[in-house]
Amino acid sequence: MKTKNIGIIIFSYYKDEDFLALCLKGLLHTIAKSPMFNVHVFVVDDNNMKKKINVKNLPIKEYKGNLEVIYTDWDRKGNLNGFDCMYGMVSTYYGLTQKYNLDYVLKFDSDCFLNTLDYITDTENALRNMNISPDRLVQTGSSFCNICCQGCAQTITKKGVIALMSLFHNMKTESNEMAKTLKRRVISGYYEDRVMSMLLEMIPDGIRFDIKTLPNCLGHLNCFDNHDADFTKYTSLTFKNYTMGGGGWTRKQAYEELKKYISKF
């Protein structure tokens, strides 16, 4: 019996199509390991780009109706920046949550891979053991840069999505100090992941849970930081952050490493 509706949302564009196709193939394996979840994957392409993702290169048939490519018109300002972009992202979360009755939204990058969905159930069980209702949870995360992890950046409950939509609506329509403060945070230059987390933390009756406290938590790995690591030991992986320095992989190396890892399934 399916117990939770999970929406995996991947904001992408044609230049990352190669990574995206690999990660989608790998996610099929992850989803198959978690039959208790009803998982729907949404690839969100940018309608403002002249060239679009070639859907023929994506494993749509293998998803049997659970993979959808949708298009948005709001300005992403490059790598998901600015107020209009974040309002567009939250509107996307909210619209899909309402349409598909999602219990959780997982926001991914194209080069991110998830080894397991078990952390969702583990988080809920941990909260119950502390006599806290999982309904109060608005985001699961770790202490890494105030977000769940880099690349696989957000795991937000339905309650969190609704609260985010309300916050952004207030920023657009109200002129009070709280709205002004929120808007300054959104346009202050932080990564969108961190801004979303800061806003979620402002929800009065919600809680944010650190998945690193779970006994079975596998953690997260920026693969270029530890090329020789056993990737299966981590909940989530991100392969392409080659631009961040520190002797990281080139884009081609990152792609080949991801391809090699996916081929094991």
User: Mind describing the biggest β-sheet?
Assistant: 7 strands, mixed
Gross CATH architecture: Alpha-Beta Complex
Structural class of the secondary structure composition?
alpha/beta
What's the CATH topology label? Spore Coat Polysaccharide Biosynthesis Protein SpsA, Chain A
* Shape call: globular
Terminal CA distance: 25 Å
Q: Output the number of helix runs.
A: 7
The oligomeric state of the chains shown is: single chain
Radius of gyration: 18 Å
Number of domains: 1
Protein described:
It is built from seven helices and ten strands. The strands form two sheets. It has a seven-stranded mixed β-sheet, sandwiched between helices. A three-stranded mixed β-sheet has the order 5-10-9. The two termini are 25 Å apart. Helix 1 links the parallel strand 1 (4-11) and strand 2 (37-46). The protein has a single domain (4-215), classed as Spore Coat Polysaccharide Biosynthesis Protein SpsA, Chain A, CATH 3.90.550. It is α/β, with parallel strands linked by helices and 265 residues long. The relative contact order is 0.15. The chain is 35% helix and 19% strand.
